[in-house]
């Protein structure tokens, strides 16, 4: 009987200590939680609320409750919304397929003992610390149809017939912006994958090589499973950053030409502040929020289930 009491008493004491630590930490967490609520949670909830109202954004104008009218407008009348939605989905797919794979290959290469690898790591990471609007200005100059580096190089090597108005053509504008995003973002994912590679147990790699495994077999059976937590983080961040892409599009095309490079985040802003329709802008933002949750939460649940 005494043994049973001791066995049940120990978990209770541990649980009480844990609860006590949580209570003691609350005063330290309160400022951060307060700032998070004021600057993130409240604006997000207020944007959802505004999606059910008609409001021009001026304080003197009343907010009129219209229910689902803004959503019906988006789905049935706003053709730009569908273009923005399609472009955002294209951006997500390309971001997962190209920059993530490229950064993984670069991380595998720079994880080897090669000359100057720290220099190369720094060079590839530097673009990720630039402000997006700065990156947009750089690449607008690179894409300039007359003075830009790309067209001048094509002329210099005798391929003048391939010169193009990269940002002025509806068929190439979005993809031209995406190339700039690869240049900016691949370094950040590179650092994450490098950190993940450092955590791969060296003894497992050596054991696989002793057993006769080749490079591909070592990567598939040892390195890749160990990189799973890092890959989960990279994919989630890639999806979120792809859906909220804004600065590059604003700085390079402003959504043009003819709305061909429009994305959801930019269209939400333009509906609210350019068209003075905060209800429609809130509806676009709410769709963007739901879309992010629909993409991120199932993948996160699947990856966590796989860990179990």
TrEMBL record:
It comes from the Bacteria. It is found in: Cell membrane. Gene3D superfamilies: MetI-like (1.10.3720.10). The chain crosses the membrane at residues 25-45, 89-110, 122-142, 173-195, 278-302. Residues 85-301 form the ABC transmembrane type-1 domain. CDD domains: TM_PBP2. GO terms for biological process: transmembrane transport. Keywords: Cell membrane, Membrane, Transmembrane, Transmembrane helix, Transport. Belongs to the binding-protein-dependent transport system permease family. This is ABC transporter, permease protein.
């Amino acid at each position: 009987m005494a043994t049973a009491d001791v066995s049940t008493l120990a978990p209770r004491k541990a649980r009480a200590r844990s609860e006590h630590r949580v209570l003691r930490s609350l005063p330290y967490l309160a400022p951060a939680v307060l700032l998070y609520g004021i600057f993130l949670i409240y604006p997000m909830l207020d944007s959802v609320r505004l999606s059910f109202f008609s409001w021009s954004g001026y304080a003197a104008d009343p907010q009129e409750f219209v229910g689902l009218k803004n959503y019906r407008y988006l789905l049935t009348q706003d053709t730009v919304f569908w273009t923005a939605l399609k472009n955002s989905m294209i951006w997500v797919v390309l971001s997962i397929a190209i920059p993530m794979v490229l950064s993984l290959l670069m991380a595998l290469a720079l994880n080897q003992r090669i000359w100057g690898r720290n220099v190369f790591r720094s060079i590839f990471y530097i673009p990720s610390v630039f402000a997006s609007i700065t990156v947009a200005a750089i690449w607008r100059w690179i894409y300039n149809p007359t003075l830009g580096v790309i067209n001048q190089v094509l002329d210099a090597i005798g391929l003048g017939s391939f010169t193009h108005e990269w940002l002025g053509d509806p068929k190439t504008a979005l993809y031209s912006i995406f190339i700039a995003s690869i240049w900016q973002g691949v370094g950040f994912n590179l650092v994450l994958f490098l950190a993940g590679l450092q955590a791969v147990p060296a003894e497992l790699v050596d054991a696989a090589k002793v057993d006769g495994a080749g490079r591909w077999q070592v990567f598939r059976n040892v390195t890749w499973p160990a990189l799973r937590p890092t890959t989960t983080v990279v994919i989630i961040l890639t999806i979120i950053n792809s859906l909220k892409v804004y600065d590059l599009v604003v700085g390079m095309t402003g959504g043009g030409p003819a709305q061909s490079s429009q994305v959801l985040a930019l269209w939400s802003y333009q509906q609210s502040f350019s068209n003075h329709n905060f209800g429609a802008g809130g509806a676009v933002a709410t769709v963007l929020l739901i879309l992010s949750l629909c993409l991120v939460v199932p993948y996160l649940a699947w990856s966590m289930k796989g860990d179990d």
